[in-house]
Amino acid sequence: MYSHSKLSTFEQCSLKYKYKYVDKIKVLGKSVEALLGFAVHDVLEYLYTQVKNNKIPELDEIIMIYSNTWKDNYNENIVIVKDDLTEKDYFNKGVQFLIDYYMKHKPFTDNTLETEKRINIVLDKLNNINLIGYIDRLVHNKEKDEYEIHDYKTSNSMPSQQELDQDRQLALYSIAIKEAFGHDKPVILVWHYLAHGIKVTSSRTNSQLLDLKNQTIELIKKIESTTIFPHNKSILCNWCEYKTMCSAWNTEYKYKNH
Ligand code: SF4
What we know:
Elements: E1 2-3, H1 4-12, H2 14-22, H3 32-52, H4 59-73, H5 87-105, E2 112-124, E3 129-141, E4 146-153, H6 161-166, H7 169-181, E5 187-193, E6 198-202, H8 206-224
Parallel strand pairs: 1-3, 4-5
Antiparallel strand pairs: 2-3, 3-4, 5-6
Helix pairs in contact: 1-2, 3-4, 3-5, 4-5
The structure holds iron/sulfur cluster.
């Protein structure tokens, strides 16, 4: 089964793809950025689940849950790449993201249907090529009768509108939403860049989604026919959980089949 992150891993570095998805090597060291993303997503899921049950948690409760999630998941294997930042800095970033988001969106009345919604994207029925994904939050805008796929971003980077109009992940998710609710229904892709307090949107036509399906099928076929997995060294290696065992960085370590 494929996912957007599996496809992205292959595009970033096919050796990393091999370590992770072919050899299924489990490693302990996760990045602090991944923990920040996890903890913030976890508490926003809690927030909207409560709202669906007609309860709006106080901000203090939100911060307390975030703090507990952080404590429960922080350990000595978490990797902090940036020398000038500490665990506390990352923890505080999350606190600030949540305060800003809470103040801006309270009372959270945009008609959330589901959080962390698992979707199955059928790319090719005949050849049984599917993709799974999780939508951070699915909203139905009753006034416009539009569906909105919301995604939270905790990184500092802020892509251009042009980049968002080409973004693959949420566009793929919109294929599943259109399958479920109707191809004539508009689906809006919504990103919350929490470090900037900015919400940005994009959308795709049905013809663009068809092109995307075909491109994704081609990429999957390429992955499935790949037998040699060369490394692709880049700045992203600093956040790669396989760096310590990677043959591109460690000459002592000669990985089989590479
Ligand atoms: S450290 Fe870099 S080159 Fe090695 S597997 Fe990871 S991303 Fe690829």
